[in-house]
Each structure stands twice: as C-alpha cells, then as structure tokens.
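Weekly structure sync, notes
Attendees: PL (lead), two postdocs, one rotation student
Agenda item 3: pending single-chain targets
PL asked that the sequence for the first pending target be pasted directly into the notes so everyone works from the same version. It is reproduced below exactly as submitted, 123 residues in total.
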Amino acid sequence: MRWLLGLAMALSFEAVAQKAEARLDCIHTGKDFIYDCVIEIMRQGQPVTDLDVRMSADMPSMPMAHQVKPVRAWATSTPGEYRARLDLEMSGEWAVKLRLSGPVRDQLILHYHFTEAGRPPRK
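Predicted structure, written out during the meeting:
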C-alpha cells in the first residue's frame, strides 16, 4: 500500500513540474472582431519551445452561445513565443483556452477583455 502512495506522490510531482504559464497580448486587426495574438509560454521562468499550441475561446457570460473553434498557433523566431489569429463574434471578456502538447502537456485558461479599439485597458 505504501508503494501505491509513493507512486501517486511521484505522479503528482510530475504533473506539478509540467505546469506552464502564459501571457497573452492581442491586437485588433481593424476587421470585424479579428485579433492577432502573441502568446508567450514559460515553465519555471524559461521559454518553452517545440510546442503544439491550440487556441480556442468562449464567452463565460454567455455559456454555449459564443464559442470559437480551436486554431493552431505557430512558433515565431523568439523562444517561447507563438502567434495565432482569433476571429471572435463580439467584443467583451472571453476565456481563451490554450492546449499545449509536446515537451509540456497542459491546458491553460486566460481571461482576456477584447475591445474594438484593440488592447484591453491597462490596470
């Protein structure tokens, strides 16, 4: 029984070690509600490269009404930086979901306020 607890603890530690962090910055393209986004992905303060990044979004204030199908982000020449284009249905707060696979497997949810003017107001 002790070995089972040890295995569970080892698996938990591995899952924690995989935890990634992301920063999102999106700019309005000037067309409808289309945004060009830059995603920075880090793990333990270091950029993560060679990832397959899928990005989708839904509007938490209107569950099941506004959902954006996943798009694939592409890596830039900057380590840990990826780009994607989101085509939303309206401005407002969206939950942007990032699914990561490769050297790091994780799913991150970032809340982002999209405005017609472009970037969200800085706090």
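Discussion points:
- The CA atoms of residues 83 and 99 lie 14 Å apart.
- The radius of gyration is 17 Å.
Action: rotation student to compare against the earlier draft before next sync.
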